[in-house]
């Protein structure tokens, strides 16, 4: 693909911190273990948002999250940082709260110092936040509250309705002072932000990039619009909510939303080595393509072009890929188009293993791409691909879908896809560093 | 309305905005900044207090207040 060169990352970029915040775990290890066990966080929301929908929608909900509780679990040894976190986002909207927390986790996991005297690294670090229109529920509460009693709106809403509040919050708690902004690409935002971070580091514009995908909110209005558009799983398997999201299954019925956040710390492999920290995985290639068509319909050509651009920029052939983390939302049309695109890129002779993380985490919308990149890192490092628990009748037999159990196939090179409304197609190549030992594959059970 | 009553309204709103704060820490001698309120916190407190008291104080008058005692005094002129 001669058009691929401009979108690539040119040289591998190391991931030295990979963090999540969601119902399946708050550390890479817990999250990976939950994925490999095929555990799904999807349930029917007990207290659904008020609206005309008769039944609550399924949701992989972030339950009982509070900033103070998170700080107690993660910052027990860092009381100053815990105090700062509570002060900065104690009453911020959920995206800023989750973004600040998960960003701190990534910085800590990358072995970078926090607090007074520890911010030197922050001067040459970029902060890239994934998503646009993040605090929609917060916005709806303020708009409805203002309608009911004008004059009670808090002045701080001037700040808290903006995506950039996440930039401010995460940069303050982590001490990041390089460039920073929010990348909006709907469901592809997480992957687009990862690509922007990797490019900035690969190009030498910054020494490090902290890429943060906060929990994306929906208000009851967006939820109902998704339901009425037919894009959201709503009707079947309501007595078994974990079965409702069924990517690549014949009986799929739409996506199930998830609440999850993720963050990664990126730097050049040499910089990681000179600090003596482990390279968890590398971003080896990236591709982005537009369909040049407004709307919600996916386009096979754009998806194929994005995947090929990612492989070309990594200097890899399709046969080098062991595993694909599909966008795979469970959408009736979307999965069919992605399956066709995967077959076009990888062929049917010896295709890579394919799964989708969304039946387990739900579709984390603007955070999905980064949550799934972290899922890929966890799987590569454990030498296994997580189950696809709901593929009872594969819609496309030529796809090599992971089945109901994890497959310990020792994948080293993976592609992760994120596609979005607006004709946005993004793919990244993630791989274990060359020097990484072959993972210990001893499964817990035979 | 007495200054004590106005101060109670200010303190209640300040504690709502800064949940980490102990009630005993809030005295008339402190400024909101000293108590850990950033610019956006201070705006929220001052607006919520005015809402609760049913008054509107011009911003020019509020900027004169540099601790809670003078804030209570400014508010007292409008109650």
Automatic annotation (TrEMBL), chain A:
Which of UniProt's keywords are assigned here? Transferase
InterPro entries tied to this protein: Beta-ketoacyl_synthase, Ketoacyl_synth_C, Ketoacyl_synth_N, PKS_Beta-ketoAc_synthase_dom, Thiolase-like
Q: Which residues form the Ketosynthase family 3 (KS3) domain?
A: 10-432
**Cross-referenced CDD domains, in alphabetical order?**
KAS_I_II
The UniProt entry, under Gene3D superfamilies, shows: 3.40.47.10
- Entries under Pfam families matching the protein: ketoacyl-synt, Ketoacyl-synt_C
Family statement: Belongs to the thiolase-like superfamily. Beta-ketoacyl-ACP synthases family.
Q: Identify this protein by name.
A: Polyketide beta-ketoacyl:ACP synthase
From TrEMBL, chain B:
The record's Gene3D superfamilies line, in alphabetical order, gives: ACP-like
Where in this chain does the record put each Carrier domain? 4-79
What is the top-level taxon of the source organism? Bacteria
Q: Which Pfam families match?
A: PP-binding
The name of this protein is: Phosphopantetheine-binding protein
């Amino acid at each position: 693909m001669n058009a691929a060169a401009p979108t690539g990352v040119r040289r591998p970029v190391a991931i030295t911190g990979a963090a999540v915040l969601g119902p399946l775990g708050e550390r890479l290890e817990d999250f990976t273990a939950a994925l490999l066990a095929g555990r799904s966080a999807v349930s029917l929301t007990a207290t659904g948002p008020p609206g005309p929908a008769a039944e609550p929608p399924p949701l992989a909900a972030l339950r009982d999250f509070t900033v103070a509780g998170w700080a107690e679990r993660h910052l027990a040894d860092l009381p100053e940082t815990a105090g700062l976190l509570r002060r900065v986002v104690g009453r911020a909207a959920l995206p800023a709260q989750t973004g600040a927390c998960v960003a701190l986790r990534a910085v800590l996991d990358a072995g970078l110092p926090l607090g007074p005297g520890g911010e030197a690294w922050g001067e040459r670090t970029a902060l890239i936040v994934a998503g646009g229109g993040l605090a929609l529920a917060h916005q709806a509460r303020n708009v409805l509250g203002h309608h009911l009693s004008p004059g009670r709106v808090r002045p701080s809403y001037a700040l808290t309705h903006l995506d950039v509040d996440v930039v401010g919050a995460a940069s303050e708690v982590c001490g990041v002072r390089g460039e920073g902004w929010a990348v909006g690409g709907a469901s592809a935002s997480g992957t687009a932000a990862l690509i922007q971070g990797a490019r900035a580091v690969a190009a030498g514009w910054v020494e490090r990039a902290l890429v943060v995908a906060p929990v994306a909110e929906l208000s009851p209005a967006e939820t109902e619009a998704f339901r009425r558009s037919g894009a959201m799983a709503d009707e079947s398997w309501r007595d078994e909510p974990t079965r409702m999201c069924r990517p690549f299954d014949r009986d799929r019925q739409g996506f199930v939303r998830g609440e999850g956040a993720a963050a990664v710390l990126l730097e050049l492999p040499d910089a990681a080595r000179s600090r003596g920290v482990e390279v968890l995985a590398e971003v080896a290639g990236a591709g982005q393509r537009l369909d040049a068509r407004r709307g919600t319909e996916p386009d096979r050509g754009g998806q194929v072009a994005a995947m090929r651009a990612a492989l070309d920029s990594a200097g890899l052939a399709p046969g080098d890929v062991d595993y694909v983390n599909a966008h795979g939302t469970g959408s009736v049309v979307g999965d069919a188009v992605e399956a066709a695109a995967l077959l076009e890129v990888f062929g049917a002779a010896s295709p890579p293993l394919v799964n989708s993380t969304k039946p387990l985490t739900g579709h984390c919308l603007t955070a999905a791409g980064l949550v799934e990149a972290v899922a890929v890192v966890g799987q590569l490092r454990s030498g296994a691909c997580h189950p696809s628990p709901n593929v009872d009748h594969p819609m496309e037999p030529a796809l090599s879908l992971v089945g109901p159990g994890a497959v310990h196939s020792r994948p080293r090179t993976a592609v992760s896809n994120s596609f979005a409304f607006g004709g946005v197609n993004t793919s990244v190549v993630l791989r274990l560093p060359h020097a990484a030992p072959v993972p210990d594959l001893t499964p817990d059970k035979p | 309305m007495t200054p004590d009553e106005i101060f109670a309204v200010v303190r209640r709103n300040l504690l709502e905005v800064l949940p980490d704060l102990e009630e005993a820490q809030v005295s008339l001698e402190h400024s909101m900044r000293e108590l850990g309120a950033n610019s956006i916190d201070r705006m929220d407190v001052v607006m919520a207090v005015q809402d609760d008291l049913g008054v509107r104080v011009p911003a020019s008058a509020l900027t004169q207040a540099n601790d809670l005692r003078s804030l209570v005094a400014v508010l007292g002129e409008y109650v």
